[in-house]
């Protein structure tokens, strides 16, 4: 039924385009241009942050929360029409590794600086997306929703709470415009993949609103060659077809922003995500009929206003409900429905005190609950935290020292997450920054309370802990930006599953690890029509658990080297792009046997776009992903797709402006 309703809404918005086009035309020369109602801006007069700034960002923007952190901001608008999903946008960042389980719509999660996927926090406009197992699935956030991605690498516990061992990612959705704007996009490509979205934005009820509908599906089948007898030399390869890789989904995003007479502003958000996908299982335990049907509803509201010239206050509330149904599967493995609910509020106040200090205090409380149909299992708890931070400016604002502390209660666990950051502006575009902090991850509901097939829970688990440090030097001017640095972390009380007689597995706190490495990020914009970026990460991991089978071995699924280079050249009417990703081999078990590893991969992607008509803007794009047809597998051993080609046709009945004075300050998360 939901698919029928979504299809009707999608069709209705498409049919409304002609009217929107007429309404969105520029006024005639004899008619005065209408003035746009301006929404109030929230600007706290603090010291500028070294690095790329987010204009007029609200308190929960990543560079406001952690001004000295290792931060990368990715503008999705610069890659319109070429990325298939959010994970593809994140894959080019230093020290971020995407764990992919298939093609379009299949599960995708992040490993950041060696921390597991359940140790990385992901937010959608500030709404947490990590589920009952502690992992956020990026496949459920289509790229059509995204305006930019804010990435914080390193200890995120002090600023974002429990779960941020390796970092945090805030996905900022598209902002509404006060002018009537409509757009649409359709993509078709390999594996019978079809994606599309339509959006309309404009003034509404003394504010501005955005409505976006999206949908897509992919059959996902592709051929691959496999060695059925790898123990024999020169064994011929056989051709097989990867099935159980299909997915389909859709959803909607509604946003509303309105300025208040008091000088404040209200932001409202509603998001719906629907997905149905096949679950292939693993190479050792393939599934022939298992499917996952998942629905997510997210609601958010934010109010904020300045107080005088030196302060501001904000309040934010959110709610999220996930419905996940697992159908079919092998005998002896539980299947059924899971419901996950989370909601909370956050209050924050900021003020400049004297000439050196900018203080901020955040109070947050939330409730989480999960139910599992199989066995009528259920669990719930409350979270509450207090976070305080100070931005101390010294030596004519060239030195900034930022201590912060979060005291948090998560269910039965009491957590303390301190962090100290510092940055120094050396002049002539040079600067340095450094951070040291502690973060925790409380065990997930599934690890603590919910039995899943052959996996048993353990209510005696302790929180994981990470001690992290990083430092970097940077230089930037009008055309170049270079950042180079290193990091190190020690993970303690890591949770891992071990065999539990007779044929079960149970999680225990016995693992420990350390991670260290180096990062390099370079961005060059020497001409308006030329952009080049590159990032490199060298990461070493070491298992510190005393069992001689694992001690001193590298952690699985953590490649030692990763390099990404990207080049885009040409004007809007015709431009080309290429991206190269080189990732070294990665182990798939803790014993460190190289024969049981995923091979290194080199992915080359090329594409071209042309905006061949204006008012309305019509753009056609063509992309080839994995040009060299490099074949590899996911972390379960299932093969991943090879070469793929896509063509995208997009239309904007009024071009979305990315740097206008009217709209720049509203492109911020809740």
UniProtKB/TrEMBL annotation:
Record keywords: Cell outer membrane, Membrane, Receptor, Signal, TonB box, Transmembrane, Transmembrane beta strand, Transport
One Pfam family in the UniProt entry: Plug
Protein localization: Cell outer membrane
Domain called TonB-dependent receptor plug: residue spans: 65-168
Domain annotation TonB-dependent receptor-like beta-barrel: ranges: 254-627
Domain of life: Bacteria
Major localization listed first in the record, in broad terms: membrane
Membrane topology: Multi-pass membrane protein
Signal peptide, first to last residue: 1-23
Family: Belongs to the TonB-dependent receptor family.
Name of this protein: TonB-dependent receptor
